[in-house]
Every structure is written in C-alpha cells, then in structure tokens.
Design goal:
two-stranded antiparallel sheet, about 425 residues, about 10% strand, about 50% helix
Length: about 425
C-alpha cells in the first residue's frame, strides 16, 4: 500500500451516498471492497471519471444478495467472470470479485475467484490500471502504478510478453493508453513485446480491434502513438490501408482541430491516414465491421473530390446539391488542415487555407434548397406521366441548379411549357 496517497479533494464522486452505501454493504462481515482501475487512475491524473468499477472479495451471488438487501437493482452482466452490475441511485457500477487467471488463449481467460488483492492486481494489464481506492479515498498501489502515473509512463505489469499472450488486444491497448496518458517514448520492453507478438492480433474479433482503434484516435493527440505503432509494425497489421498512405497528416489535423475548436473526431482522423479509394474503404468497413453510419461516411468521403480553394460559394453549392454534404465537410477540413501545415513556410498555402476556411464556413451553414417544381405541375400543363415527364423535370432541375438556384417557379413553368410543346 502506498501511504499518504489519497483521492481526498480529487474525487467528489467517491463521496456519493449510493456508492458509499454499496461499498459499506460489500464490506460487512470482514469482506473487502474497493474502487478499482480507471476511476482511480483518472482521479489521480486529474481527468474526468465516467465509469466506476468496484473490486470485492464477495463472490457474485453474495454481491447480488448484499446489493439487493440495501435496495439496489442487480444485473448479472458477466457473472461467469465474477461481474455483477449494480444500479445504485440510477448509476451502474460494475462489481467484480477478485480473480486469478488459470487459463488463457490470447482472447479470453478462465478465472477462479479469490481474496488476494495482489494476485488480482497482477492479472491486470498496466500498472496505472491496477490501482484501488478505499471508501475513504486511500489509494492502494501493489504494482508501482502511482510512480508510473507521476512519470506519465505506461508499463505492463510484470512480463510484457506474458501479459500480451493472455490477451492480444493488450497490444492495441498499449498504444491507446500511451496516446491518452503516456509521455516521451513508450516503455522499451512493452514496445518490443508488441512488435514481436503483433501476429496475434489476427486472432481478435474485428469489433474489438475497431473499438480500440477508435478510442486511440479519440485521444487529444494520437500522433505519437500512431508513429510508434507504425514503427512496431502494429499499425500495418490492423490497418494495412495506412501503410503507403502514411500518418503524416495527423499532427497537422490535430493542431487545426485544437486551434479552430473542432470536436475530436476519430473518423476524420481515420480518413487522414487512409487513401480516398472507395473500393478499399468498402473493404475496410467490412473487415473492421464498422457501423452502417461509419461505413457510409467513409464511402461518401472517398467518392467526394476536394473543391478548389478558390471556388465561389455558388460553385460549391452546386456540388453540394448533387453530392454529400458530410463528405465535403470531411474533405474540406482535411484540406484546410493540410494547407495550414504548409502555410508556415508557403504563402500560397496560406491563401489556400483562407479559401478552405471560407468554404468550410459556407458548407456548415448550407441547407439544401428545395426544387420548386414537381411532377404534378407538369401534369397540369398537359404532360402525361412517363419517361418524358421525368426527363423534362430533370432538365428543368439541371437548369435551376445551373442558374445558381435563382430561376423562379414562374420562369421554370414557362420553360416546362415550351419543352412540352416542343
């Protein structure tokens, strides 16, 4: 235990009455319960805490009995692995019995329940994720996690290769947590182990791989982590599309986003490191099992061309009318970030950046205008339903767009009448 280290004054959430009530119930009769993992880590680092997990010596059935006895709802979300979700005061807490791995296959582990806090800590991945906190805020550190937090150092617990062989996802987690919490160079032994065992990533499900990649790309600045992933051959293993395209655009994109107040967008960052090839992006979406929305966004981005930085708003509006607005937004943002990066030593790029900034502001405000003529209007002029009516309507719409959306309904109807007579 690391004396004198406490969450007091750093974790208002710890004093929440329902959490304290749950911890007290789990500790009755000589049992123990502590907040574990990410909540403790983030509180010490000074970052927001989203989820609060609890580790306890009570077995799952006893956890359920005790939680329900004090009025909380329980859900056996992972009871075979010792995890019960307790809903206390409307907030879910994952409560897990202390465990030790008895068998692993690189994806999942068979566990036994125990009462040994050090054994429970040592089965976790990184030292900064194996910290516990008592109900009074006292931090329990059994693996040197506090020193690593202070040094912004990410280390596997014990032998890095052994930890990875237990679950190959830990290779991606190594780079993800480095992006979020690390500083300087990654731990040398951890980096070497990731490089040696990267072939094990092929054993993982696509959903787990994409989930980790997306979290990594959501970090404030993932550029250093991506660089080391590439150096270790890990990035190519999970994202081969990036191999010849490169990751050089990421740093400039991150800086532009920070300077211009853009929301952190992992999909935009993914687009920055893969080629705008619709066929390859379709394959990528299928391989990583992206959601329909994510796959559509990649496809639209790949099919959209970058507008000229000197284009007028009217010229862009015509493209937007027939194209995909989100695809153009992504293209313009990436082009703007690239121009800003070059503008440091290139006056031409500075002018381009100004042009893309203007087009971005226009696109953000743009709303697709409604074509003022319908098929019924042509029917009233004597047109019969069929291909000719459709072709006339399409030609009218093309004229309307070509005019910069200025042709009014009356003028369009006159043109329609003339077309139908002809």
């Amino acid at each position: 235990m690391s004396a004198e280290v406490s969450l007091s004054g750093r974790a208002d959430w710890l004093a929440e009455k329902h959490l304290q009530k749950l911890l007290a119930a789990l500790k009755e009769g000589g049992e123990e319960a502590r907040v574990a993992g990410g909540a403790v880590r983030n509180a010490l680092i000074g970052q927001p805490v989203a989820d609060i997990d609890i580790a306890t010596t009570t077995v799952p059935e006893e956890t359920i009995r005790r939680a329900e006895a004090v009025g909380f709802k329980t859900v056996p979300t992972g009871i075979e692995h010792g995890t019960v979700t307790v809903v206390a005061g409307g907030k879910p807490y994952e409560v897990t019995t202390l465990r030790a791995d008895i068998e692993t296959d690189g994806r999942r582990a068979k566990v036994i329940f125990g009462r040994d806090w050090k054994a429970d800590a040592e089965r976790r991945d990184f030292t900064i994720n194996a910290l516990y906190a008592e109900a009074d805020g006292t931090v329990v550190d059994l693996v040197g996690g506090i020193a690593d937090i202070e040094a912004r150092r990410l280390r596997f617990i014990g032998d890095a290769e052994a930890r990875i062989r237990e679950d190959y996802l830990r290779i991606l987690r190594f780079f993800r947590f480095f992006a979020w919490y690390g500083d300087g160079r990654p731990d040398a032994e951890g980096l070497k182990a990731c490089a040696r065992l990267k072939d094990g990533l092929a054993r993982l499900s696509a959903e787990r791989v994409w989930s980790e990649l997306k979290k990594l790309l959501s970090a404030a600045d993932p550029s250093r982590a991506l660089l080391w992933m590439r150096q270790a051959g890990v990035l190519t293993a999970v994202l081969p599309e990036s191999e010849k395209w490169g990751i050089d655009a990421i740093h400039g994109l991150v800086k532009a986003g920070k300077d211009l107040g853009w929301t952190t967008d992992p999909m935009l960052r993914l687009e920055a490191i893969v080629p705008p090839d619709a066929v390859r992006m379709k394959a990528l979406g299928e391989r990583l099992r992206l959601s329909n929305d994510e796959a559509d966004r990649l496809r639209h981005w790949a099919l959209t061309t970058v507008p000229d930085a000197k284009a007028t708003e009217t010229e862009l509006a015509k493209k937007l009318y027939y194209g995909d607005r989100d695809g153009y937004l992504d293209r313009i943002r990436l082009a703007l970030a690239a121009a800003r990066t070059r503008a440091v030593e290139d006056n031409q790029a500075m002018m381009e950046a100004g042009g893309f900034s203007r087009l971005l502001n226009f696109t953000l405000k743009w709303e697709k205008p409604v074509f003022p003529i319908k098929g019924a209007d042509l029917t009233e002029l004597g047109a019969s339903p069929g291909p000719k009516l459709g072709a006339t309507l399409k030609n009218l719409e093309k004229e309307w767009v070509g005019s910069g959306f200025t042709l009014e309904r009356g003028a369009l109807l006159e043109r329609a009448a003339q077309a139908l007579e002809a």
